[in-house]
Amino acid sequence: MATLTISLPTQFIIQVDTEAKSQGATRSEFFRALLRKYFTDRIELKPFVKIPLNEIEDELRKSGKYNDKFIKSVVKGFSRSSLYAG
């Protein structure tokens, strides 16, 4: 067996922990069960579509929900991610 490490937002971790605990499972068991279901039932996952950073920034601004500092931090974070860097 091999090890797989993933990073998730804290809110997802809280939900995973809650669900795993309700099933009497660990995080690892939870994800193994999820992957088994995916590979047997073929849950439809949509592929990632890379949106230009300027479009992301524009959409965040248009929403009127976020301040400039937050928007800049999101765009900066994306620009450093493996999907957008380089």
Account of the protein in words:
With 86 residues, the chain is mainly α. The chain has 2 domains: 10-41; 46-86. It has 4 helices and no strands. It is elongated and about 45 Å long. The model has no long low-confidence stretch (mean pLDDT 89).
Count of the domains: 2
The largest sheet is: none
Q: Could you tell me the radius of gyration in angstroms?
A: 17 Å
Structural class, by secondary structure, is mainly alpha
Helicity range: 55-70%
> What string gives the helices and strands in order?
HHHH
Report strand %.
under 5%
The total of helices stands at 4
Terminal CA distance: 33 Å
Tell me, rounded to a whole number, the average pLDDT: 89
Net shape: elongated
Tell me how many strands there are. Answer: 0
List the uncertain runs. Answer: none
Write the layout of secondary structure elements.
Blueprint (H helix, E strand, L loop, with lengths): L9 H13 L4 H15 L11 H11 L4 H13 L6
Helix pairs in contact: 3-4
Any descriptors?
0% strand; single chain; mainly alpha; 86 residues
Can you describe this structure in just a few lines?
With 86 residues, the chain is mainly alpha-helical.
